[in-house]
Amino acid sequence: MRAIISAFFLVLVFVTDINAWQVVPDSIVRYFEKELLHFPQEKMSIHTDRGVYLAGERVWFRVHVVDALTLLPANASRYVYVELIAPTGSLVKRVKIRPDDKGSFGGYLDIDENLPEGYYTIRAYTQFMRNVGEDYYAHKSVFISTPASQELKPHVVITEQGEDLKTRIYFSTEADETDTIVPQQVLVFADGDRGGKGDHLKFKNGVAEYTFKEKEVNKSRTYLLQAIYNNKIAECYLSLPFDDSDFSVTFFPEGGTAVLSSPSKIAFKAIGTDGLSVDVEGEVKDEEGNVCTTFRSTHLGMGSFTLNCMPGKRYVAHCKTGNGVEKEFELPVASEQAVSVNTLWLNDVLRVSLNRSPLNANRQNLTLVAQLRGLVLYAKPWDNKREFIDFSKDFFPAGIVHFILIDENCNILSERLVFSRQDDAVAAVTLNPDQLDYTPRQKVVLELTLKDVYGNPLEGNFSMSVVDKADVQPDTTSNILSTLLLTSELKGYIEQPAGYMKKDKRTEYNLDLLMMTQGWRRYNVPEILKGHTTETLPYPVELSDVVTGRVEGLVSASKNANISLIALKDSVIGTEMTVVDSEGMFRFDRLEYPENTQYLVQALKPKGSRNLYIALDSCKPLPQPDLKLLVPRMKKKVEYNYMQKMDMKYTIENGMRVYNLSEVLITARRKTKERPSSPFYSEIFEPEVLTSEDVDRQNILSVLDLVRRLPGLTIDSEGKVKYYRETAKGVSPMVLLDNVPYDDFNYERLNVNDIENLFFASPLTMTVVYGSRARAGAIVITTKEGFVQKNTLNKNMSIVTPLGYQQEVEFYAPVYDTKEKLESRSRDLRSTIYWNPSVVADAEGRAHVEFYAADSPVDYRVVVEGVCQNGVIISSSSSMVPE
User: What pLDDT shows up at residue 24?
Assistant: First the structure.
């Protein structure tokens, strides 16, 4: 944290050199300064080796972590959490990354070969970032495909829209949509969970009818389609067809409120029911039907118009989409008392003015404040004799400038966002290969240079990906530049953010529309202006693993107890000791062990530990993702050459893909789930069974994390399992561990990796045997063969398996440094030719990398992303050999 605070003062000193700073009201500056000191924030950007993968491949990534204010590299947090999230919003995999010897957070995510096709999200955050919420975590979309899914193209057409959605489903080949195909079998999982029960489709004349029931659809409105075609299982996630007969338009007067009897600029944004943009056009009419102005969206459903709102009149916008759907929307009511901040770029000058109603004679004392990423750059009373204030283009650093107009009581009257584009914010990257042309398997030597806008060398650290251009198309939707300067500051979904980083007049206009229509609240500015700054944070900076708990015992049995912690991973890899305090509490910190490490915590006393009981209250699993994913309307086009190569590469390395088909297909897993041996299992009442396979596939880290996946149960803030049906709402179910009943079971005592299967037995099944004791049902747990009951451990012992850090693995690329290797018949089918998460540019701005070409023609794309030591962003995507 010291590094972040130091960086803040560096910027503060720089700003104080500005002449205008001498007149900044002290209180406003102090409040924002105090907020930054107490609550410095982090930003992140995710760089992956490419954006399209085949199931069974490995995703290589680097998470760039910077201080939100200065954009300087930040390493205050010791760990970064990286998650792969399915299109349904459920967690597929989570890893924990620590920095390497260069301070970079690099790692990998292995994609299960049975993962269905679809758009997945990679999300990254630190524990400290949980203080600002999930909206500001780093996100990156990747598309995962399968060979079988590429042979089929599903078509889903709405036939009736109501509370439920009636559809017609048919299939065609990818090449010819008129060539209708009827698969051997098709299942629909309306809730997107292929572990549940799918509905069989029956085809007639090549078409099946299916109704999506509203109560069965998940929050993300994503379902799973599973088909058998040519004896292969093809699975893909799809979004429910959206109703293109409906849309919404929101209007945003500049500065927040339209001014009465004065021309006001009003921006608008139109979105469809799927949350994505819709192009519209229309007219604004008053209540008498007179047309006041016309408008048309110019970029991703956004546009603007000018309207002079007159007293006593109401205005309605008549909107029409490209497919002819029409709707009306009332415009925000104008106010005579409104005072709005207006901005306009005039070449290299930003002009800021106030728009007031001529009917408003009140000339109250107003103050204009401009802040960027929490740092006040301008704050001065507004001179009512002036019509405007001009700021030179270089006055503000790169990023989103937040103008705020406040009254004498620090109430916000108007707000306006403006994007400041600065050439010196981005490094110039020069790529110098050692020759102009290469042959397959030839050694490639690249020299990269980083310079600032003035030609001075830049020292920095960046990740680098070299991919085959014939296989992988570049990601033009987002990059580190758009992430750090744009999307990390704004709330909500932004379509194609990288497009706003272009430098032309049309893009500048579109970017300003985005500033007027997108929500912003990284900092709680209204509270800060009134001096209510953040004093405490629920999530401190994470510096190590921490295990805390308490020891209880009869009378003074816990007094002066010693606590030991043994770290186990195949064998003992570490031991720690501590003592309890006067309240019986203990704490282990500075722990750091790799993933799959178990902690055995034990309370000991010289005269025996029989009367001691130990309870852990930390190492609880991170919460499940809670985000709504917007899926692009067009399916990602995967290059056929890439699909063929990667499937062949997978076959060479892992053998042929295996599809185990059964007469009735339930899931695409290689092994069908076995029926639990428990006498309390009923296929009618307890259809959901979670097994050790689920634990491995979903990277489940604790028993509670597994239990939360059972229907009918919920887990409260204290980690207690509760039944939420009306018959015993809020009551904890009993536990049957290997048919031994427990009423108050401690789930932390059981290692999730020791579970064979687990299911929830309903009260109807359990009360027959256990009476009212089982009025909330029971969680029936069966452990693996040979398992030594953890509940038979002494009460002074407890076992927990926290999420350990991922151990480093180096990207493998073959080396053809001998004649035998060069002439080897083993095929080199790489699509990612080279990946390095941490390339260092020295004080001269130079970096040197070497790798060998693959068997394909050497037509490669080089993508580098990172941050220099002075906060300048590194972002470049170019061909290795000039075209």
Answer: 44
Which pLDDT tens digit goes with each residue over 380-429?
Answer: 999 988 899 999 999 999 999 999 999 888 889 999 999 999 999 999 99
What the block records as the tokens of 479 is 């990059």
Q: Say which DSSP state 240 is in.
A: P
Check residue 669 and give its pLDDT: 41
Measure CA 266 to chain center: 32
Q: Output the CA torsion 523→526→530→534 (10° steps).
A: -30
Sheet holding 367-372, edge to edge: 375-381, 367-372, 399-406, 412-420
> How far apart, in Å, are the Cα atoms of 619 and each of 287, 545, 758?
62, 8, 22
Q: Are 746 and 615 in contact (CB under 8 A)?
A: yes
Round to the nearest angstrom and report the end-to-end CA distance of the chain: 46
CA 208 to chain CA centroid, Å, is 35
Q: Is residue 708 within 8 Å of residue 747, measured between CB atoms?
A: no
Give, in order, the Cα–Cα distances in Å from 221 to each of 192, 213, 239, 275.
9, 11, 6, 12
CA 428 to chain centre: 29
Question: Where on the phi/psi map is residue 556: left (φ > 0), alpha (ψ -120 to 50), or beta?
Answer: alpha
Strand-pairing partners, residue 757, are 691, 782
Helices (H) and strands (E) in the chain, counts: 10, 52
Of all residues in the chain, the percent with pLDDT exceeding 90 is 50
Sheet holding 545-553, edge to edge: 585-591, 545-553, 612-616
In the numeric block, which tokens belong to residue 632? 């692009």
Phi, then psi, of 282 in degrees rounded to 5: 175, -170
Q: Are 400 and 485 in contact (CB under 8 A)?
A: yes
DSSP assigned state of 333: P
Place of tokens 């008549």: 318
SS3 378: strand
What single letter denotes the amino acid at residue 97?
Answer: I
Distance CA 322, CA 279 (A): 7
Phi/psi of residue 428, nearest 5 degrees? -85, 120
